[in-house]
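[Discussion] Sanity-checking designs against the backbone

I'm trying to build intuition for which residues belong where. Below is a structure token string of 388 positions. I'd appreciate it if someone posts a full sequence so I can compare it with mine line by line.
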């Protein structure tokens, strides 16, 4: 903790994903009393209220994922062109490439889920095909296609797996990133943030905690922090100077620890429908900065979190089927508030390891690369044809 930071690395961002996935699993276990009401759970020594409160606030995990996405996409676009000027061909290829790389981790698991859930109890058919009429069948096929491509949330919601709503937001982030990069470059950060804050209110866009608008500011903060290297700057900023400089890190650690608890309490108490920028962007930044400066320098902890972060996508996509659909009683049968999410994490992690081994077996990465190459060649042909 005494060393100065030099960069916010990919390893750091992956470790932050590890923290976020732990928060997400805990959140999904206890965010609503109805999820565990049928089970006898020991909440000692904190009590049910405190566990539920902290679990509820751990929806900040979505903000962490949104922040990391914004950070990474900005750097990717900066690497494409440091002047932030892109040709239509370049930006089309970049968007399609980012989309395929993001969705490739989803597609295989989605197909497995459709097949396995149908074989177990006909769940897939029940969700997508409510009736036997031709109209309902066509609608069901359309919904499944939208679900597969990650955009069903825009039209119907995600009944098949409710937690998959984030895939729609991830797709929207990819589409929005080049637009915001150009706006930042042309008008500056503050005017763009002001418009992003007030425009949805002027247009009376309905608020929902599972929509792009709720997490837009977390995403934009990620881009801004990447643009100005603010993660490193904040971590290296000295609150105390001169003779007291030796106390800088300890004082900063104590103050930031207190701020984390304050942020959690404010998040819990604040009405989200009016202050979602504060709730889903500003407050989570306290935890993100704290984790980067004080947690990720611990080598063992960073390696564990990094490992979890590498599997975070698979855990996110599969854990609901375990906790809710098919092993609900088993998951909550362990009786202790801390043991239940731990068991869920371990089972989801083991399943993720199996999935990754299967990917290697079928050479899934090679298939993805071939798809990327075919997509980019197709884009080149389209733009070459338009030139003629």
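Best answer:
Here's mine. Compare freely.
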């Amino acid at each position: 903790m005494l060393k100065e930071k030099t960069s916010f690395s990919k390893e750091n961002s992956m470790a932050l994903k590890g923290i976020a996935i732990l928060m997400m699993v805990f959140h999904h276990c206890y965010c609503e009393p109805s999820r565990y009401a049928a089970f006898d759970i020991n909440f000692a020594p904190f009590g049910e209220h405190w566990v539920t409160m902290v679990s509820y606030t751990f929806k900040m995990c979505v903000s962490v994922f949104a922040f990391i996405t914004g950070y990474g996409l900005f750097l990717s676009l900066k690497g494409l062109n440091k002047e932030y000027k892109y040709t239509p061909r370049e930006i089309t290829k970049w968007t399609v490439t980012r989309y395929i790389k993001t969705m490739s981790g989803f597609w295989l698991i989605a197909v497995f889920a459709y097949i396995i859930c149908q074989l177990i109890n006909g769940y897939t058919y029940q969700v997508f095909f409510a009736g036997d009429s031709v109209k309902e069948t066509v609608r069901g096929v359309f919904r499944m296609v939208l679900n597969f491509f990650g955009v069903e949330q825009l039209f119907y919601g995600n009944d098949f797996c409710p937690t998959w709503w984030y895939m729609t937001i991830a797709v929207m982030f990819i589409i929005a990133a080049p637009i915001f990069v150009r706006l930042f470059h042309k008008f500056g950060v503050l005017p763009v943030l002001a418009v992003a804050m007030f425009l949805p209110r002027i247009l009376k866009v309905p608020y929902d905690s599972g929509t792009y608008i709720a997490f837009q500011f977390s995403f934009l903060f990620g881009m801004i922090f990447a643009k100005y290297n603010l993660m490193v700057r904040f971590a290296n900023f000295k609150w105390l100077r001169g003779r007291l400089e030796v106390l800088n890190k300890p004082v900063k650690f104590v103050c930031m620890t207190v701020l984390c608890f304050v942020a959690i309490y404010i998040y819990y108490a604040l009405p989200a429908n009016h202050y979602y920028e504060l709730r889903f962007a500003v407050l989570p930044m306290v935890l993100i900065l704290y984790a980067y400066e004080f947690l990720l320098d611990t080598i063992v902890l960073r390696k564990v979190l990094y490992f979890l972060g590498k599997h975070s996508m698979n855990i996110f996509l599969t854990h609901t089927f375990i906790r809710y659909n098919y092993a609900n009683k088993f998951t909550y049968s362990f009786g202790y508030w801390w043991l239940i999410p731990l068991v869920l994490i371990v089972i989801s992690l083991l399943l993720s390891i199996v999935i990754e081994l299967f990917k290697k077996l079928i050479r899934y990465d090679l298939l993805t690369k071939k798809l990327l190459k075919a997509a980019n060649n197709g884009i080149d042909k389209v733009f070459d044809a338009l030139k003629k």
